[in-house]
Amino acid sequence: MSRGEERGLLPGTEELAPRMVADKMAELGVPKVSGDATLFSWFVLYMQLEVIGIKAKATEEAKWQDMRAFLRWYAEANKHLAVEMWLKRDTAGFLDVLEAKGRKPATINRAFHTLRTFSRWLRMRPDNPLRDNPVHTSMERIQPQREPSKLAAPVMWSLLKAADNLVLTEAKNKNSRPVRNRAILVVLQETGLRVSELCDLSLGQYEGKYFRNVKRKGRRFDDVYVPKKARGPLNEYIEGERKKDTKKPDGSIATVKGGKSSGGDECLFLSGRVNKRGTRRMHRDSVANVLEKIAAEAGKYSDEGIEVHPHMLRHTYGSKVMAKTSSESQTATFLGHSSTKYTGMYIGLTRQEREDLLDED
Asked: What are the sequence ranges of the domains in the chain?
């Protein structure tokens, strides 16, 4: 049984959800053209079966944006949205237009990957409407190797010190969660989790030394080791602020709804309010706000302002692992990458650090 059938959608083109197609065309500003099973209607079916409710919300929105730009260009250039007429020349022309507009290679490659994934899905269907493969790997842009925006050791120390200070100064503030905030900072720093992975954690996944069955990108699940430095702040939060947040007025423990990825278990990190889905699971914006607050406190003791976001902590972790192991494969494993494709960015940085050490007087 296919994913579409599991979710109540048949694979045939007669199930292309015309209402959703019309709504999305209006929302995204995609031109209305004649034809039933258009390129856009096929994309809506792909999104329904493979992305919506399965991939992260940010991934879903990025795919809509990429396809909106492509279909606007495709319809204007060809005067139709016929899926069977989508050719390599169309994809190459669209990516060239993005480049001519000054889009960065990363932005162009994101659109390329959206189109490639979609075309691959079409070609794997028994009712494949394409005449040819419209996306070729040679269309991907070469990106300059960039150094990850990691945090220097003194900056990291300032952040940790600021988090400690906030635990002391905000302990009696009923609306503050300084112990939780410190735990979030340290867990991100010591595990390299993506912010989405952190937000999806449930209490039942934490087993002392590991977060079990952490949902990674690509629908994979890993066990993530929790170093000693992270266990102390995390345990303190679980036994303190978190336990208080789950108590009812009568002293009994309230059940905290979880998200779909946790199988309905209790959220590990609780927000201060119930969100639109009826849970108290923290959102990536909430985590960013937590780090901004800690950075603001750290900035009081620094001549320059301190900027930090969740992925900087992930880069800091990746650089540390690469420096200690000198292994791309091990670094990829610790970061939850499916290959070593994305770990090359850490090599030059750690080599430079080693050179600096040799050049010291």
From this structure: 3-139, 153-347
How is residue 145 annotated by DSSP?
P
Q: Is 247 helix (H, G, I), strand (E, B) or coil?
A: strand
Class of domain 153-347: mainly alpha
* pTM over 0.85, yes/no: no
Q: 101-114: per-residue pLDDT in tens?
A: 999 998 999 999 99
Query: With the C-alpha atoms ordered 148, 153, 155, 159, is the resulting torsion angle positive or negative?
Result: positive
Locus of tokens 């209790």: 266
**How far is 21 from 36, CA to CA, in rounded Å?**
11
What confidence tens digit (pLDDT) does each residue in 53-102 have?
A: 888 888 888 999 999 899 889 989 998 889 999 999 999 999 999 999 99
Phi then psi dihedrals of residue 57, to 5 deg: -60, -40
Cα separation, 197 vs 217, whole angstroms: 9
Look at the alpha carbons of 273, 275, 280, 281 in this order and tell me if their dihedral is positive or negative.
negative
For residues 158 and 295, give the distance between their C-alpha atoms in angstroms, rounded to a whole number: 8
Give the sign of the dihedral formed by CA 293, CA 297, CA 298, CA 304: positive
Q: Could you tell me which residues are beta bridge partners of residue 308?
A: none
64 vs 66: CA distance, rounded Å: 6
Give every CB contact of residue 173 below 8 A, 6+ residues apart in sequence: none
Q: What is the DSSP string of 264-280?
A: TPPBSSBPSS--TTS--
> What is the Cα 228 distance to its own chain's centre?
26
Hey, what are 286's tokens? 């909430």
Per the DSSP assignment, residues forming a β-bridge with 270 are: 281
If phi > 0 it is left, if psi is from -120 to 50 it is alpha, else beta; for residue 259 that is beta
Q: What is the mean pLDDT of residues 140-148?
A: 69
Q: List, in order, residues 6 or more apart from 140 with CB less than 8 Å away.
A: 109, 112
Contact call for residues 234 and 188 (beta carbons, < 8 A): no
* 213-243 burial: b if 16+ Cβ within 10 Å, else e: bbbbeeeeebebebeeebbebbebbbeebbe
Question: Using an 8 Å Cβ cutoff, are 3 and 49 in contact?
Answer: yes
Q: Which residues pair with 339 in a beta bridge?
A: none
Give the amino acid at 232: G
